[in-house]
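TL;DR need structure tokens for one chain.
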Amino acid sequence: MAKVIFSIRYNIIPQKREEYLGVVKELKSIIKAEGLESYSVYEQKNKANSFEEVYVFSNQEAYENFDDNADERIDILMTKLSDMIKEQSTQYSTLIEVTN
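>> reply
TL;DR here they are.
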């Protein structure tokens, strides 16, 4: 089955950087779901406060079911995180592995 990579790229409010890093650290330790192979967060080289979250799913079904698995703590952290993101800086990308 084809893997799916979902990514979210955004800029955060500079004054919220330390708080953001704390939220991401906690998220990385608790985000788990069936079919989620990895969750990573990267900062763009040479562009401070520009981050990208990358989710790798084992297949399309796992990707489509991911939102159904969120628990209350993850929802709270995601809400906090969204409050730190600069408006109109978010870009989403979904990639499906070519298997032929």
